[in-house]
Amino acid sequence: MATCYKVMDGDCARELVGSLREDGFGFDPEITCLLASMGARFTEVEASYRPRTAAEGKKIKWQDGMTAVRVLLGNSVDRGPALVSSGEA
Length: 89
Description:
Layout: H1 10-17, H2 27-37, H3 62-79
Helix pairs in contact: 2-3
């Protein structure tokens, strides 16, 4: 879930715009939950990555993991799967 890239088609992105509430580190789990509720299929694609150290500006800490849990639980309770439609009638 925690990735630096998410790729989707324009229609899917436009459908998400009005539903997003998070900024910062909560955005990643929120968009993943919304895409899952739309019935999106996820595919992992390998990418080169060299993580930064704290000295190089790495900002994520264990507290950000708690933010992710809060967002995941909040999305499953507050919004439910029907908030974002899958486009199927």
